[in-house]
Design brief:
The chain is of the alpha/beta class. It has twelve helices and 14 strands. It has two domains: 186 residues, Isopropylmalate Dehydrogenase; 158 residues, Isopropylmalate Dehydrogenase. The strands form three sheets. The protein has a ten-stranded mixed sheet with strand order 2-1-3-12-11-4-5-10-8-9, with helices on both faces. Helix 11 crosses helix 12. The protein is globular and about 60 Å long. The structure holds 3-isopropylmalic acid and magnesium ion. Magnesium ion binds next to helix 9. Magnesium ion (MG) binds next to helix 9.
């Protein structure tokens, strides 16, 4: 039976980069049907809300989702409850995509594009496993209230139940089993009770994986270690907000946030795939965005949700080939390489397949 992929380009550079990724997907000649939908600001403009019921229904029915990016200055004045980002968070929560895999791999060809010394980052290959449907992003109560003295007070709640910690723990340990068999759990257990529980539950889960080594690190130290000696990490597992922050940090180690894909999976392996970068409204429509993170998200989709690992490998190899050819979008350009546009990069990857 053919598989269905829902394509949600979103806002800013989203439509440009997704168009290139779709080109690559179609060039593979696999039996995959594409459907399109609206999310984020594009959906607000068309329907009044960031996640129309029609999009949600298609998202429930499909086998996998390819998403570009959401958000932009145009929608910033809106109430936080109906901003474009709520479309993304609604998909994650509504589909229970609790496991977010964010690999940070440094391509040899881009060692000079990193702001860190080549020897610190060469051959970097780490995986951040971010909890995606819980924590402070979703905790209740939340809001801004006015106190008796007339002062406004903002508040959010960091909350994790044991089962939420346990299930992301299993994903991290199983991921590590296929890699270098080391998990570093990142928390703030010295200050936050919630992450003290996180640490205890990770210890419990670790007992089921005797061949995987577990260590713990406070998040402030983890941020420092990521830029000091990132190669010490294999798999990092952490909360929703810490994972958001650390994955941007890890991205920069690889030279550009425009290189990093992600997978957000439910318990059955159904997933949503997106570049980890945002909608970059400042460069939208200029044809300069790097489509590689989105193309590599297609590769993750083929591998994790569509059972097409051979096609995934072809995509990964094609990306390496264009980098070998010296083709670079502006974000990864350096002297001696050839600067190409978003669509030229997409065409080159298709040609390299
Ligand atoms: C990410 C993004 C999102 C997040 C935003 C756009 C809501 O930063 O996917 O990392 O915070 O999760
Ligand atoms: Mg982020």
């Amino acid at each position: 039976m053919s598989k269905n992929v829902l394509v949600l380009p979103g806002d800013g550079i989203g439509p440009e980069i997704v168009a290139e990724a779709v080109k690559v997907l179609e060039a593979l000649g696999t039996d995959i049907q594409l459907e399109h939908g609206l999310v984020g600001g594009a959906a607000i403009d068309a329907t009044g809300g960031p996640l129309p019921e029609e999009t949600m229904a298609k998202a429930r029915d499909c086998d996998a989702i390819l998403l570009g990016a959401v958000g932009g200055p145009k929608w910033e004045p809106l109430d936080i409850a109906i901003r474009p980002e709520k479309g993304l968070l609604g998909l994650r929560a509504g589909l229970e995509l609790f496991a977010n895999l964010r690999p940070a791999i440094l391509y040899r060809q881009l060692a000079d594009a990193s702001t860190l010394k080549a020897e610190v980052v060469s051959d970097l290959d780490l995986m951040i496993v971010r909890e995606l449907t819980g924590g402070i992003y979703f905790g209740q109560p939340r809001g801004v209230r006015t106190l008796d003295n007339g002062e406004r007070q903002g508040y959010n709640t960091l909350v994790y139940s044991e089962s939420e910690i346990r299930r992301i723990g299993h994903v991290a340990f199983q991921t590590a089993q296929k890699r270098d068999k080391r998990v570093c759990s990142v928390d703030k257990a010295n200050v936050l009770e919630c992450t003290e529980l996180w640490r205890q539950v990770m210890e419990e889960v670790a007992k089921e994986y005797p061949n995987v080594q577990l260590s713990h690190m406070y998040v402030d130290n983890a941020a420092m270690q990521l830029v000091r000696a990132p190669k010490q990490f294999d798999v990092m597992v952490t909360t929703n907000m810490f994972g958001d922050i650390l994955s941007d940090c890890a991205a920069m180690l690889t030279g550009s946030i425009g290189m990093l894909p992600s997978a957000s999976l439910d318990k059955n392996g159904k997933g949503m795939y997106e570049p980890i970068h945002g909608s970059a409204p400042d460069i939208a429509g200029k044809g300069v965005a790097n489509p590689i993170a989105t193309v590599l998200s297609v590769s993750m989709m083929l591998r994790y949700s569509l059972n097409e690992s051979e096609a995934a490998q072809r995509v990964d190899d094609a990306v390496v080939r264009v980098l070998d050819q010296g083709l670079r979008t502006a974000d990864i350009y350096s002297a001696g390489t050839e600067k190409v546009s978003t669509s030229q990069m997409g065409d080159a990857i298709v040609a390299a397949l």
